[in-house]
Amino acid sequence: VQCRGPGGGTSALDAIVHHHRGMAIAEFEPAQAEAAGNDWMQPVGETIEALRAAIDLPDLLERVAQRVRRLTGLDRVMVYRFDEEWNGRVLVDARAPDMESYLDLHYPASDIPAQARELYRSNLVRWIGNVDYAPVPVLPWIDSERLEPLDMSHATLRSVSPMHLQYLRNMGVGATLTLSLLVDGKLWGLVAGHHRRPVALPLRLRQAC
Prior knowledge:
Elements: E1 2-4, E2 10-20, E3 23-30, H1 41-52, H2 57-72, E4 76-82, E5 88-95, E6 106-107, H3 114-122, E7 125-128, E8 142-143, E9 148-149, H4 162-170, E10 175-183, E11 186-195, H5 203-208
Antiparallel strand pairs: 1-2, 2-3, 4-5, 4-11, 5-6, 7-10, 8-9, 10-11
Helix pairs in contact: 1-2
């Protein structure tokens, strides 16, 4: 999509459209410059082949973390698994050499509450490009037919909890990418990517992940 600015110049936007509760919601974000001829199919195809070659579950999860880190360039990519009571454990931690290891750390179920887990189950990709972003209000924020706030559960660019953002800042994280792992429709775990600085990951790359 091309957008004309106040000065008369144009810039490219990526558009994301989804249908929810009888409404179409369109989101736009600046298109990221990519190398000429960049084709995500080749690295994604190589990643799929690498995952197929895994000999067991630990090997598979290690390959997942390493491959996602290679695709995105993030400083850290972890695989995090939930137990039957929704407590979490870091099974794999692929990280830059100068970063502290989170391997085998355990987290209580309250760390990712039920509402957040349901969003992870229904939205497979969650990206925060800059934890210090300035939220922008949606107008109108009321669904005029239902007389209730607009449901943005499936919106890619919706804001997140200020508490979660502060939690990330306390960890020294500037940007995150979270991929949901489902087994038989149930949330099994997460692939959690952290970067120490804000980062703009192209929409096509996030879709590939």
